[in-house]
Amino acid sequence: MTARILVVDDIPANVRLLEAKLTAEYFEVLTANDGFSALEAAQAQAPDLILLDVMMPGMDGFEVARRLKTDIKTRHIPIVMITALTDTADRVRGLEAGADDFLSKPVNDIALFARVRSLTRLKVMMDELRVRHATTGQLDITDEAPLDTEDDARNGRILLVESEELLAEKLTEYLSAAGHDIFRTTGAAEALERSREQDMDLIIVSLHLAGEDGLRLCSQYRSQEETRHVPILLILDEGDLEQLAKGLDLGVTDYLIRPIDQNELLARTRTQIRRRRYHDKLHEMLAKSVSLAYTDPLTGIYNRRYMNAHLDRKIMEISDTQKPVSVLIFDIDHFKRVNDTYGHAAGDEVLKTVAERVGDSIRDFDLLARYGGEEFVVIMPSTPPDPAAMVAERLRLRLAAQPFEISGSDQALPITASLGVATTTDPTETSQNLLGRADAALYAAKDAGRNRVRSADAPEDGEASAEPMNAVAGG
Amino acid sequence: MTARILVVDDIPANVRLLEAKLTAEYFEVLTANDGFSALEAAQAQAPDLILLDVMMPGMDGFEVARRLKTDIKTRHIPIVMITALTDTADRVRGLEAGADDFLSKPVNDIALFARVRSLTRLKVMMDELRVRHATTGQLDITDEAPLDTEDDARNGRILLVESEELLAEKLTEYLSAAGHDIFRTTGAAEALERSREQDMDLIIVSLHLAGEDGLRLCSQYRSQEETRHVPILLILDEGDLEQLAKGLDLGVTDYLIRPIDQNELLARTRTQIRRRRYHDKLHEMLAKSVSLAYTDPLTGIYNRRYMNAHLDRKIMEISDTQKPVSVLIFDIDHFKRVNDTYGHAAGDEVLKTVAERVGDSIRDFDLLARYGGEEFVVIMPSTPPDPAAMVAERLRLRLAAQPFEISGSDQALPITASLGVATTTDPTETSQNLLGRADAALYAAKDAGRNRVRSADAPEDGEASAEPMNAVAGG
User: Fold this and answer.
1) pLDDT for residue A1
2) Are residues A270 and A297 in the same domain?
3) Active site residue B393
4) For residue A225, what are the domain limits?
5) pTM of this structure
6) Which residue did the predictor score with more confidence, B104 or A50?
7) In chain B, whose CA is at the least distance from the CA of A127?
């Protein structure tokens, strides 16, 4: 994993040193010597990561970080603050200004590359989620995602895997005092089980587990889907650098070296949890917009747009499967009367109940969609005309069998539907044509008196059709 | 990067050997001894990668691959076929059956881990894009993405960076014969420029560029955003294994060892291009659904849902910015007459033209949305009441100044609008309330005779308002 890194320091020798180290590892390096040029470079050149010195004349690192995190164009770029070794207060201030991490001067190579790799890997993942508006480029839903805030790192659920009793006690004490929920385990098997039972925000793993390999556990966390994106903080000793490199390669997110400093523990914990939650939020937003685009807001079932795409695909697949595809269109009888008599809210309730009843009655591989107004469609892959007509008849009965309760009326409404079925075995038939044939069958069902099924492909085979009923009392 | 790998081979010793190698590198290993158990394991345990032996009694590897790629549950899992060294025909058959890659027996470690790492990295990236329906878990838009097909790897645009004239000639000849477009360059600077000018489907880079470091170039491709996801095929010699490891770490996707076999070149090229295009398609689909969820299908501008979320945020930001937020609601005067007189198609044209004219007249940081029917909203951050009223007046004039051309009528329609403006400086005012105030101002504008601006926050300051005009001739 490589990346473009902006190095910001007012002392040219420091810039050159970091530049040389990073370039040798094939990173691309941009440089800036003061806060203003740093902001400009960040805006114009969109680096993947910023290494930011704290002490600079003019605008200091804290202010630069604050501005970068306020600007919509730069706020997703991770920042690593470079502070004096001893200055814990600076570190806390840096994180508060929006820095994602910090490194102490003189910068240790392993630490540098560990942070840089872990942050750029994360950035690439986030960029993947930053889906932009296809046409104008203007809309970026991540712009609408709330900024990382303090709040996003509170009450973390943290799994602690540490076999050394004393250290585990101390870590639990520190983290609990900061308001996190700690789940303690001592061995890998229990740790894996625990994280499967409950979503964790962070997993802290000791490299030295009694009789077990901490890295093996990390690897297992990375390879099972539920924990793949949960950050892992590895606890190790100064002498474990080789295993650390391996761990980072496996996807360990960050590390702490013993003896553990309370402030550093809390700061790193907070950063990891905040980042994890931001990632989840992006994912949720994407999932939500996908769902908004393809579902009907009232009933929650698929909309016409999705149904059309799905039907196109199912018809295309006939050339592989050689199996017929059936569609069923149905329409609630005299629906206008429901709206006119009981109001639109009642009409909406009826539509929802219809979607529920039908949804419960179809098979897993059938697809139910709202076609518009009071019309619905069911797509049935691998279904010949007769079974399709039987499904339709079952749905008709299911709707007619039990009157619909609506709020604001103590009388349940009898509701019926007319249904039209059509089947194709021809992969070149358009979905529009197939739906048109089903629609014609639906009209035939209506003409024949409603509350019945008609099939486009077996018009004469007399599927069951109940006596027409007066659909809406008093309508 | 670690992963869960399914090893399929009918010879237990082969399974054990691969299992030992992979486990030592912290991969998780599942095993199967025949085709049927392989299909079962793939379905039940969702591995990240499948290493699949070709020669097995019962169902052979080709058939297993074919079935895995047909099943919606398993078709996104990459497959590496393991073939006898000499059997080029098998390789081609494997790729045709849907394998993503192949390895020759006896399996070389570097090759094994190179393929495994590159494919699992890609799989994780794809998984990130496989956004599922938030509530039911039923909708997965990637299910609707077309399967990788032969067609997806044709006419690739390939950038070839090779300083050795003879090899470059030969590669160009092979790839052109397969229908690809080849762009030849010999040095890194030109190569970078070329790939910025035009989207490439694949970049083939020689490790040994005259006087330059091929890996440096790969690194640059990976760190610039436009080429980050373009696959890179590295060309090297048998002795370059150390650089290969570094290259794969930098994000090189695959490699070829000289002397280059024509079939292998074409197969790997095809696999990479197909994968790249599938990735792009997923990204496009996501972007499209985001856009569908947040834009108005008729005019292409934002919809009410997006506008509301945006306005909430802008009002919230007042506590940071201390700057007023203004909203403007407007309504096309006598729009019903347009529909009634000229038909809905004409009405739609008018709505589109209104969106265009207003969109062209507002500032970059303003947001235009369709509020419903013939109502539109403009959100103006950092805008006090007076400038907001001026913007409104400018929009009013822009609409009224030039009659609207509509198809099917040789007479242009005069169109005017009534506009209401409201401003808030209070971060706790709800967007609903602010819009309500603007809406009241809009009604005041209508009451006062239409084609004018009224402001909720400066009712008496007499902004310009033209004489009311009869909006639609003959309406």
Assistant:
1) 66
2) no
3) no
4) 145-290
5) 0.75
6) A50
7) B225
- B54 and B185, same domain (yes or no): no
* CATH assignment of the domain containing B72: 3.40.50.2300
pLDDT tens digits, B345-380: 899 999 999 999 999 999 888 999 999 889 999 999
> Does residue A134 lie within any of the structural domains?
yes
Last residue of a domain, one of A230, A260, A290: A290
Closest by Cβ to B222, choosing from A2, A294, A306: A2
Structure tokens given for B253: 């996707």
Whether the per-residue pLDDT at B104 is higher than 50: the answer is yes
Facing B131 at nearest CB: one of A1, A225, A287: A287
Q: Would the CB atoms of B295 and A139 count as touching at under 8 Å?
A: yes
What tens digit of pLDDT does each residue of B72-81 get?
788 889 999 9
Residue B165 included in any domain: yes
Note the pLDDT of residue A93. 82
Model confidence pLDDT, tens digit, residues B129-156: 776 543 344 445 555 554 444 566 789 9
Active-site entry in B162, B349, B374, B463: B374
Q: Are the Cβ atoms of A128 and B124 closer than 8 angstroms?
A: no
> Do A158 and A170 share a structural domain?
yes
ipTM of predicted complex: 0.71
CATH number of the domain that residue A406 is part of: 3.30.70.270
Which contacts of A341-347 are long-range, i.e. CB under 8 A and separated by 24 or more positions?
A: A341/A472, A341/A474, A341/A475, A342/A406, A342/A408, A342/A409, A342/A413, A343/A408, A345/A407, A345/A408, A346/A406, A346/A407, A346/A408, A346/A409, A346/A413
Q: Are residues A351 and A406 in the same domain?
A: yes
Please indicate whether, in this complex, the C-beta atoms of A291 and B135 are within 8 angstroms of each other.
yes
Q: How far is A184 from chain B (nearest CA, A)?
A: 24
Do B107 and B247 reside in the same domain of the chain? Answer: no
Alpha carbons A57 and A65: distance in angstroms, whole number? 15
pLDDT at position B434 is 96
Q: Which domain-ending residue is among B272, B290, B308?
A: B290
Within-domain flag for A468: no
Answer whether B290 sits within 8 Å of A133, measured CB to CB: yes
Residue A147: the pLDDT is 47
Q: Whose CA is closest to A255, among A105, A150, A103, A62?
A: A103
Same domain, A442 and A423: yes
Q: What is the number of domains present in chain A?
A: 3
Give me the residues of chain A with pLDDT under 70, please: 1, 85-88, 131-152, 458-475
Chain A environment of B46 (Cβ under 8 Å): 225
A76 & A19 share domain: yes
